[in-house]
Amino acid sequence: MKRLAVILGVVLVPVLSAHLLLAAGFFKVGEKAPSFALNAISGEPVSLDAYKGKVVVLGLFHICDPCMMQGTNLQKVYEATQGKNVAVVGVNSSGNSKKEVGEFLSVFPVKVTYPYLLDPGKVTDKLYGGGKFIPNVYVIDQQGVIRWQRVGNMELAGADAIIAEVDKLLATESSNKM
User: Fold this and answer.
1) Is residue 9 in a domain?
2) Which of 15, 19, 55, 125 satisfies CB 3.0 to 4.6 Å to 130 for a cystine?
3) Is residue 176 over pLDDT 60?
4) Cβ(162)–Cβ(77) under 8 Å?
5) Segment 72-101, tens digit of pLDDT
6) Are 88 and 54 in contact (CB under 8 A)?
7) Rg of the chain's alpha carbons, rounded to an integer?
8) CB atoms closer than 10 angstroms to residue 133
9) What's the rounded Cα separation, in Å, for the pair 72 and 176?
10) 117-128 residue pLDDT tens
11) pTM, full prediction
12) In a domain, 102, yes or no
């Protein structure tokens, strides 16, 4: 039994370490958020740069159940931050068609009213390191710097957790104006 544990350790530790190192390269807290310009499912062009000066909550999604749950959380964030200096944006970062994304959004338990962007070239997947790490939520400050990021776990990236991070940035904004 001891020998099996040693063998598993020798095999699993390098694999898990490599996976964590790969993931660490995608977690860009403290770095400038990579810019992109895409079209919303409704057709209008949307650019991350257009939200400079606002706190941005950016969700990167594929078509999957965890992404539906996180997309629903973003709708709650969107509703809770209406009238504040906040933009909530969702991106289908896996390159799905407009039809596929529309069908996916139609089965959400809530109506998504925040901008939901199409990314046919998977630009955001490359810029933000999605793919294996989905859903992925970023909170970006008013200067365009990533201040908070979570992958996959809805408890750690639930609506309340996201709103708390947004409120911290809004409080910083308010104290800087005084």
Assistant:
1) no
2) 125
3) yes
4) yes
5) 999 999 999 999 999 999 999 999 999 999
6) no
7) 18
8) 18
9) 32
10) 999 999 998 898
11) 0.82
12) yes
